[in-house]
Amino acid sequence: MKRKHDHGFPSRDAIVAFIRAQPGKVGTREIAREFGLKNADRAELKRILRELADAGTIAKRGRKIHEIAVLPPTVIADITGRDTDGELLAAPTEWDTEENGPAPKIRIHVPRRLQPGTAAGVGDRALLRIEKADDAEGAPYRGRIIKIIDQARTRLLGIFRQLPGGGGLLVPVDKKQAGRELNIAPSDTAGAEDGDLVSVDLIRSRGYGLASGKVKERLGSLASEKAISLIAIHAHEIPQAFSPSALRDAEAAQPATLKGREDWRDLPLVTIDPPDAKDHDDAVHAAPDPDPNNKGGYIVHVAIADVAFYVRPGSALDRDALTRGNSVYFPDRVVPMLPERISNDLCSLVPGEARGALAVRLVIGPDGRKRSHSFHRVLMRSAAKLHYAQAQAAIDGRPDDITGPLLEPILEPLYAAYALVKLARDERDPLDLDLPERKILLKPDGTVDRVIVPERLDAHRLIEEFMILANVAAAEMLEKKALPLIYRVHDEPTQEKVHNLQEFLKTLDLPFAKTGALRPSLFNRVLGQVRGEDYEPLVNEVVLRSQAQAEYSAENYGHFGLNLRRYAHFTSPIRRYADLIVHRALIRALGLGEGALPETETLETLSEVAAQISLTERRAMKAERETADRLIAHFLADRIGATFQGRISGVTRAGLFVKLSDTGADGIIPIRTLGTEYFNYDETRHALVGSRSGAMHRLGDVVDVRLVEAAPVAGALRFELLSEGKVIPRGRKRDATKAVSKSHPGRSPREKVRKPHKGKSGKAKPGKSKKGKSWKR
């Protein structure tokens, strides 16, 4: 029986509820059929759907309609304008309009008596507590400002280039502004010199020619490429200087003693880190369990630097750490979350020095599963500082002077315990994407020497699995004690993204039969089927893009990628504020002494912290990626005209993104340069398809390209495609070119390309080289 509203037409809430129940499968025809609407009702239905889309309640792609992803209760948003009644409207900062359509509107409620720091205006960025609005006709959410994070910006950031006759030009650092220079008059340079990073106020200009600007602040010289990371630091407003009070607290701090601690100084814990690590905040040890009831099992100890002992809640060090949220790692420098006196000295587990630690004792059964755990506040002394390749070489029969004496008593038990843990890990079957990570190595002058892909060793996996066990134990302990904490969470893919993945895999003749609950093993089966095939990178990319993005949350909804019901970050409080919160909560839960989580910290306050540090984490990821892009663009700037081999890493209606094989550099091939024919964007196949020839350029294809333009300051590269598209006969299996839609004559290429059909917000875009990686631990 068809459902109608009392007045003969369905309510907006009823329409939205129906769309929600049929994700990615609903069009105007299905809605009309569901509610028994006649042809005469279609105009009214379309008007309502248009209003719902304008309000950000639903999104329409092609002929299909879906409900906008639900926002969490605490969100960081940008204030975008006012409604007709003068009330402020906002939109979530981490919303991908290209992927999800218009962002949902949030109408901000302003109380009569404002709290300090909550007076906002258009252009500001704020932390909001939100709830669903009753009136779906307007903004679907109501919000209350918790605090202002950033004021409206009216300045541009760029490199000052001096002109011979005086004055200069501003070369913008934003990749989107590449090539749009500003003129700076001699009287407006504020003493800037060639190569300075400057912030500039725009000056309204009349007539023709370049827009003008006025230098407001000199931020540092970029005469040396050692300073190239300064661009990202200032562009993303990453704090560099600690407050004087925080530095005083750090310098006044004293080493931990045995007071209130267990003595673990005789336990030969070792650190295993990258060779260039500046701090060492985790140490491990393993030994066979002497308990006859656990024959064949092991006891694993994981000791983590006791940062909570030095960084007390509400202190200057704590305020600075929360503002930063995490350390940021560039090829030429680190912007640490904590001063070096804490991170590189008192909390670095260097060999031979007594250090305070919060440690977990893990009892592992012969099947590799964790049987029990206990937490301890200890004083420890590292027995050795090793790097991954060094530890692996010793196990592989090539010990050196340091690892030789450690091989039998320390390294072999560690690897034996890891072999057990791996059994349980394989049984758990977490998402197993092949995601090689490139590392940029610099010369002494700060320029790029080479780009490498470090070999993935069992030493890496050993440390990773032990850290995962410790993180799970921390979450379990705090849940058992009913204390609030910040989880590391990773949602499962949306139904819409799973549907899109299924449609794509059909084009490769790959089955993806979803029955029952969604599990990582379902994706792993697909990845296993394509291992060693030409299209293995393609399938890895598409599976990656179907995943959600990991984040921090005070509410637990599990970690899909790791296939864990509860998970928290515990193992790196030197560089992540989330881990510091977990340490404090454990100290409070177990009565371990000073530095505990205050009683005032509640689920509500931790939700605000989680939203903030999720944003700083993404800020760091963007800054790190942009710096790598700029360094590589500098490296390639003198090779215009050179040819390279690469792989198509993104396909959009704007063109193709290509990642070069040797350097990992990302660049774009604009769609207008692909040839003389029109190219259609095929969202199912992740490809651009020629309208006449049927030639296809697909995500994952290996191609030859020529570098035609490099903008080092913006980190932008433009390529010309040299490879021909693939044309494969109809009916051939495991091919994405079975059917090619034809163009209609007389339309422009821009009209021919349809917008991608995607799911939830804040996820990886085509062409972005790292964005799916954060589902990992």
Automatic annotation (TrEMBL):
The superkingdom of the source organism is Bacteria
- Got a GO cellular component term for this one? cytosol
Subcellular location, record wording: Cytoplasm
The protein's matches in Pfam families, at most eight in alphabetical order, are given as: CSD2, RNB, S1
Keywords, comma-separated and alphabetical = Cytoplasm, Exonuclease, Hydrolase, Nuclease, RNA-binding
Q: What is its EC number?
A: 3.1.13.1
SUPFAM superfamilies according to UniProt = Nucleic acid-binding proteins
GO BP term (any one): mRNA catabolic process
Region annotation (Disordered) maps to 730-777
| Compositionally skewed regions (Basic residues) per UniProt | 744-777
Reaction(s) catalysed by this chain's protein: Exonucleolytic cleavage in the 3'- to 5'-direction to yield nucleoside 5'-phosphates
InterPro entries documented for this protein: CSD2, NA-bd_OB-fold, RNase_II/R, RNase_II/R_CS, RNase_II/RNase_R, RNase_R, RNR_Ribonuclease, S1_domain
The GO molecular function terms of this record are: exoribonuclease II activity; RNA binding
| Chain ranges of the S1 motif domain | 641-722
Primary location: cytoplasm
Query: HAMAP family given for it?
Result: RNase_R (MF_01895)
Reported function: 3'-5' exoribonuclease that releases 5'-nucleoside monophosphates and is involved in maturation of structured RNAs.
Name the family the entry cites. Answer: Belongs to the RNR ribonuclease family. RNase R subfamily.
Q: Which PANTHER family match?
A: DIS3-LIKE EXONUCLEASE 2 (PTHR23355:SF9), RIBONUCLEASE (PTHR23355)
The name of this protein is Ribonuclease R
Species name: Bradyrhizobium archetypum
Q: Which gene encodes it?
A: rnr
